[in-house]
């Protein structure tokens, strides 16, 4: 029979199975090598999240301190979320020049002040905020003073002792601010709200200096009358909220 001119088909069946693979290259066995590395990575991530879950009851302040230290070491800009404390919300942006260490210190300071107010049962009469100047604790005026007076109430001294302890623990400059509403004063020892607000701030500072013996260069007393309200002066509730004493723990460079 004549030759057809076409190449002969392989007669060996085993050779037919290898037509799709280059000659001389052995067949691969098992999963590719990259799958092993991928599985190792997934296992490590699983262990990491299990570890995080096991720490779910850890001290929040210590956890934030750890995170802040890691961010500072890695040179990352701190991401600062909104702060909710004592029933009021405040926020601060990460672009205000704060370092990781300052952010951690602010968290610890907030924790101490919140605990001090809660121990005295004054959470409903206080608010804690982060501002561009630092951490500000505001307390309603009736906690410290009788109406129209700058004489400290005896029951206010327990809170002031706790504030003094915080001052010793955090050596920041503290601005003590007196605020009133905008209603004119009736007959009394003070001619206007300016004198009253300043006298109240001074009375608080005098206690911290003379009784708690904290260095005087740490403090400044300021009176604002009703010029910096946090609520409307047009309602009794708003005016009551505006009458307050604020402790502003300044941040470095924010004086």
UniProtKB/TrEMBL annotation:
InterPro entries: Bact_OuterMem_StrucFunc, MotB-like_N_dom, OmpA-like, OmpA-like_sf. SUPFAM superfamilies: OmpA-like (SSF103088). GO terms for cellular component: plasma membrane. Residues 132-253 form the OmpA-like domain. Pfam families: MotB_plug, OmpA. It is a single-pass membrane protein. It is found in: Cell membrane. PROSITE patterns: OMPA_2. Keywords: Cell membrane, Membrane, Transmembrane, Transmembrane helix. Residues 1-26 are annotated as: Disordered. It comes from the Bacteria. Its main location: membrane. The chain crosses the membrane at residues 41-61. PANTHER family: LIPOPROTEIN YIAD-RELATED, STATOR ELEMENT OF FLAGELLAR MOTOR COMPLEX. Belongs to the MotB family. This is OmpA family protein. It comes from Eiseniibacteriota bacterium.
């Amino acid at each position: 029979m004549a030759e057809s001119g076409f190449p002969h088909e392989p007669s060996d069946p085993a050779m037919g199975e290898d037509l799709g693979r280059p000659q001389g290259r052995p067949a691969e066995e098992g999963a590719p090598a990259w799958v092993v590395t991928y599985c190792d990575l997934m296992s490590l991530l699983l262990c990491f999240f299990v570890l995080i879950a096991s720490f779910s009851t850890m001290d929040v302040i210590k956890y934030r301190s750890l995170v802040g230290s890691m961010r500072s070491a890695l040179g990352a800009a701190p991401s600062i979320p909104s702060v909710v404390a004592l029933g009021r919300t405040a926020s601060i942006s990460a672009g205000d020049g704060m370092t990781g260490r300052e952010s951690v210190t602010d968290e610890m300071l907030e924790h101490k002040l919140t605990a001090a107010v809660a121990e005295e049962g004054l959470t409903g009469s206080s608010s804690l905020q982060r501002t561009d100047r630092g951490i500000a604790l505001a307390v309603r005026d009736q906690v410290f003073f009788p109406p129209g007076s700058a004489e400290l109430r005896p029951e206010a001294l327990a809170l002031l002792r706790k504030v003094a302890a915080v001052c010793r623990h955090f050596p920041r400059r503290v601005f003590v601010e007196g605020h009133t509403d905008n209603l004119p004063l009736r007959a009394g020892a003070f001619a206007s709200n300016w004198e009253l607000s300043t006298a109240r701030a001074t009375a608080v500072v005098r206690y911290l200096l003379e009784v708690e013996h904290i260095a005087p260069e740490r403090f400044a007393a300021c009176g604002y009358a009703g010029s910096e309200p946090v609520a409307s002066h047009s309602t009794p509730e708003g005016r009551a909220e505006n009458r307050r004493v604020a402790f502003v723990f300044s941040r470095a460079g924010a004086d």
